[in-house]
């Protein structure tokens, strides 16, 4: 590791460090998705000059086909974090039919940083295609396809962001492993990520509609279906309604009944308090209402990078109100009556010390789905991390089930 001189851009109260992939406002780090950061850097480096939409798409997504709406969504995100979204253009100006221009005064200084020589992680696939489709009720859903082979569809879970997940320490090993064997299709459900944020209906039925729309848009006739956590209920519902299209059903940390149906009044009270906390705390660092999401979802073997990414996800992926609405819709899930009707081959994975979803819920799934196989995982993590032994067990058993 060597000490290198790197440029630092300053504008208004903000500092932008390309070497550290960091935007800061004063002493506070400002969370940005990797693509939004690259767009901001491209605009800042071309201060005062118009950067065309085509140039930005090519620079930020060189190996990926995306639509202009994805670029527009990222620029909207940048304007929000720069507080440039109230009818003003102190930083980013839209030049109609041409592109964007960074209009604030930029000062360049040199800073000393430790160089690591890191490039793209070798385990991250090189191409992701992001597209959009519209549901029957007019909601625009962002979906992505990567890899080749027999299709594997992942139902959306709370919370997703296709772009922010791409090189994250929480998801990149999932994407890398699954795309070795499959065309892997995933999407951002309504209300979060790159999908439409302003939506009226957030419910299980709406999530099933999202899944149906993505599958049809991807042109899939038959595929394996994966449901993680909240995504289990839409996956179960889809498999019961369309058994001819689902070859395998994979449930991971999933449940058939939300908090409203678990016969635990004290736990339900705690859940409601948590939802209130989400509405109060989301996107802020108020010490009076602080909490660490990573401790709930990845409490074991998590590094500072895992914790930082997971806690930033809550600010990047959804508004406080939408995050709470999604949680409340999860509370209302009740597909237990559908379990005996599942006719497709099913495997159920569940961490035995899962803090987010009790392993009791996984055992209910395995016991009430005909001929389902149950694989307990020795972990407290709701989402398995790359370096833990349970991940290797999961990959081996999943491979056997899907015929790798």
Q: Structural class, from secondary structure content?
A: alpha/beta
User: What would the CATH topology of the largest domain be?
Assistant: Rossmann fold
Query: Mean of residue pLDDT?
Result: 87
**What's the CATH class label of the largest domain?**
Alpha Beta
Unreliable residue runs? 1-5, 112-122
How many strands in all?
A: 16
Fraction in beta strands:
15-25%
Q: Helical amount among residues, as a percent range?
A: 25-40%
CATH architecture of the largest domain: 3-Layer(aba) Sandwich
The tally of helices reads 13
Q: How are the strands of the largest sheet arranged?
A: 9-10-12-11-13-14-15-16
What are the secondary-structure elements, in order, as H or E?
EEEEHEHHEEEEEEHHEHEHEHHHHEHEH
Radius of gyration over all CA atoms, rounded: 22 Å
For the biggest sheet, the summary is: 8 strands, mixed
Q: What is the total domain count?
A: 2
The CATH homologous superfamily of the largest domain is named Alpha/Beta hydrolase fold, catalytic domain
Shape: globular
Commentary on this structure:
- The chain has 404 residues and is an alpha/beta fold.
- The protein folds into 2 domains: 2-115, Arc Repressor Mutant, subunit A, CATH 1.10.10.10; 129-402, Alpha/Beta hydrolase fold, catalytic domain (Rossmann fold, 3-Layer(aba) Sandwich).
- It is built from 13 helices and 16 strands.
- Strand 2 (14-17) and strand 3 form a beta hairpin.
- Helix 1 crosses helix 3 (68-81), helix 6 crosses helix 7 (232-241) and helix 8 (265-281) packs antiparallel against helix 11.
- The longest helix is centred in the C-terminal third of the chain and has 17 residues, at 265-281.
């Amino acid at each position: 590791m060597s000490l290198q001189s790197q440029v630092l851009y300053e504008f208004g109260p903000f500092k932008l460090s390309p070497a550290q992939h960091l935007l800061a406002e004063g002493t506070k780090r400002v969370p940005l998705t990797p693509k939004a950061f690259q767009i901001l850097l491209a605009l800042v480096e071309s201060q005062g000059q118009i950067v065309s939409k085509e140039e930005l798409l090519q620079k930020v997504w060189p190996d990926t086909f995306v639509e202009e709406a994805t670029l527009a969504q990222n620029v909207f995100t940048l304007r929000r974090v720069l507080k440039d979204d109230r009818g003003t253009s102190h930083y980013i100006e839209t030049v109609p039919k041409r592109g964007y221009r960074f209009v604030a005064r930029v000062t360049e200084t040199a800073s000393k940083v430790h160089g690591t020589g890191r490039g793209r992680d070798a385990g991250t696939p090189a191409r992701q295609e992001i597209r959009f489709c519209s549901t029957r009720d007019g909601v625009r859903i962002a979906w992505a396809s990567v890899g080749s082979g027999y299709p594997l569809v992942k139902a959306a879970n709370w919370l997703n962001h296709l772009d922010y997940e791409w090189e994250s320490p929480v998801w990149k090993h999932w994407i890398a492993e699954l795309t070795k064997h499959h065309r892997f299709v995933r999407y951002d459900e309504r209300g979060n990520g790159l999908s439409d944020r302003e939506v009226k209906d957030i419910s299980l039925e709406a999530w099933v509609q999202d899944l149906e729309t993505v599958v049809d848009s991807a042109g899939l006739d038959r595929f394996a279906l994966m449901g993680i956590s909240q995504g289990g209920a839409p996956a179960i519902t889809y498999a019961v309604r369309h058994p001819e299209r689902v070859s395998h059903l994979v449930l991971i940390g999933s449940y058939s009944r939300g908090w409203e149906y678990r016969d635990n009044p004290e736990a339900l009270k705690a859940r409601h308090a948590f939802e209130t906390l989400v509405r109060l705390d989301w996107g802020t660092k108020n010490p009076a209402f602080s909490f660490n999401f990573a401790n709930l979802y990845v409490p074991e073997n998590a590094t500072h990078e895992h914790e930082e990414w997971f806690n930033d996800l809550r600010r990047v992926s959804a508004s406080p109100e939408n995050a709470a609405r999604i949680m409340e819709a999860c509370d209302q899930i009740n597909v237990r009556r559908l379990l005996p009707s599942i006719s497709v081959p099913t495997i159920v994975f569940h961490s035995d010390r899962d803090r987010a979803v009790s392993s009791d819920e996984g055992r209910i799934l395995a016991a009430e789905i005909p001929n389902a196989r149950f694989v307990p995982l020795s972990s407290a993590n709701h989402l398995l991390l790359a370096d833990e032994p349970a991940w290797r067990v999961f990959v081996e058993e999943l491979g056997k089930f899907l015929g790798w």
